[in-house]
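Lab notebook, page 48
Experiment: co-folding of the full assembly
Goal: obtain a model of how the components sit together before planning crosslinking
Operator: M.T.
Materials (sequences as entered):
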Amino acid sequence: MTTISDVATHAGVSIATVSRALSNYGRINPTTREKVLTSVGALHYSPNRSARNLRRNQTGVILILTPNMTNPYYASILTGISDTATLHGSAAFICNTLDDQDRTIAALDRLRQHQADGAILLSTDTDSTWLDDYAADFPLVLCSEFLPGHDIAHVSIDNRAASCDVMRYLLGLEHTRIAHLSADNTYQSTLDRLAGYRESLIAAGITPVPEYVVYGSPDYSFSSGKAAAQALLDLSEPPTAIFCISDTLAMGAVVAAQEAGLRVPDDISITGFDDVAVNEVIRPQLTTLAQPCYALGVTSATALFALIGHEPTPLEHVLDHHLVIRQSSGIKTVRV
Amino acid sequence: MTTISDVATHAGVSIATVSRALSNYGRINPTTREKVLTSVGALHYSPNRSARNLRRNQTGVILILTPNMTNPYYASILTGISDTATLHGSAAFICNTLDDQDRTIAALDRLRQHQADGAILLSTDTDSTWLDDYAADFPLVLCSEFLPGHDIAHVSIDNRAASCDVMRYLLGLEHTRIAHLSADNTYQSTLDRLAGYRESLIAAGITPVPEYVVYGSPDYSFSSGKAAAQALLDLSEPPTAIFCISDTLAMGAVVAAQEAGLRVPDDISITGFDDVAVNEVIRPQLTTLAQPCYALGVTSATALFALIGHEPTPLEHVLDHHLVIRQSSGIKTVRV
DNA sequence: TTGTACGCGTTATCAA
DNA sequence: TTGATAACGCGTACAA
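Observation: model returned without errors.
Model output:
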């Protein structure tokens, strides 16, 4: 293990000089600096981060907590965060929490242990009130999801408005029997999308049908989407459009419709949410509400570094969304 | 920031006693121990990892380097690694390298900087000879891919044998015009699968047709698979079966075939590789060669911790694979 | 059984 | 412009 004093000896200077040469702190003779850097190269020296962190009381590391890597929705967000971290001279390390509270807490405890400067959470159930304790003491940003009424910084789209956009589109296609394929979790986004759905129906003068609201699994699995959609199609008066709150659920709905002998979008319209990359794989291609994933990542990380640097930053960041119209939706046709 | 001496003061003992109470080092009076633990709880004390790491010269962190999070193939591997790390009292942090050499090197430099005890690489191009330098100095394990002829620990299946299994299956279905949809990278797995394909043809007395070997993008993208498959279907004598070296490529091939008006598997058989979870989404469901992803992760992590602890561990771990027969393949039928 | 004191490798203050 | 030196918080010989 080569240390700073090895370099000092090799270069014939003091450790203070080596440190200065490396961190550009204070004035230093360019010639000395060169000499030091040569020694650094010759000895393959890298500063010991533990020692540096101990002294500086900061780590140059941020943590990203994600419930599952399977969800393609996170891919661009993670890239956005990583890129921004690099720009700030930090590393972004991802922790796979698998939606397990013990793992989540274990990861967040790394903050208390001075092993990371801050953390970004990629999913937050609305009952995670214990988060307040961490947010009070450490830089924390919630990405995509957040806890209303809590003073924790968060970045997301306006899910209610986005939901209304989807509904405006479907209503414009003359659909009146519109179902909502939600998920069995308490994410704020889930609640907001449901609220937007209900509001839009009422605003259009349509009485919401309770049977038209069904739920997939908490993690939006394909099979749960398929099952929930099948239940809808088995109704005596099935919907002519299904508004799904994730692309994976929508894929399940598409397959359910096809297996029921229905053509998408001729017989039934199906829309997704998020616009994940896998969408290109499924046929028909999904009409979906696109989230600005990369920007969500960048914005979250930027806010986090502001918190870390004790710079002012708003508690709430709302990013723009847009509807992407593809093949899985169309104007309502009369059944033969 | 509460430190060990705060706890010592609060408990009315010395810092040595606090340290002993926490790390179970040496003899300590149970009563004193209780007293200390009470103070620890009251003060919400957590040891400063930087200080501890500096002193112990180890971090309790391993790094996982992954080229892209989009690839569902990695999901179970990552879980296997994380679970094993937890068992060893370590945390597994994931670095998104995006297949970028600078990012990869930056991540690996964390080892030299004493910010991680070891690393697992989830993809390795065969020209990454600079890896030897790191492997010589630090615990390193290659998962799924490896560099033949280099002394770096690795865990994978026998790709050549797996390829032969796929071919034996297709040949048993009486296919003779079998194409190979490979990828434009130099992964050892890619080369091995191609070798198994060629060998099997020759062993079956079939002369390999150069036009039947086509290439998708280095990262196995859906669209590249679709394009490559289209080229195959445009041949004057198109294949009756396409052996793809990834599920994503196979999905592309399926769509290409369908758009060309072919039925899968009636008109053409298509097989994938890996058996990633998204497979349940695509119809027809893919026949594919399943890799033991979770076990690959567990085995890699176990080997890494052996290296970290200077325990003996074989350089090469070969895990079992198996063929999963689903809907995308069938017996060769005569075209009408 | 407990406490004192040194050192891990840095950074940063202060004096030269 | 440089060097000596005191922290940073913890673990652990060694002494008590």
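Interpretation: Residues 13-17, 20, 26-29, 32, 51, 53-57, 114 of chain B lie near DNA strand C (CB under 10 Å from a C1').
Next step: discuss with group before ordering constructs.
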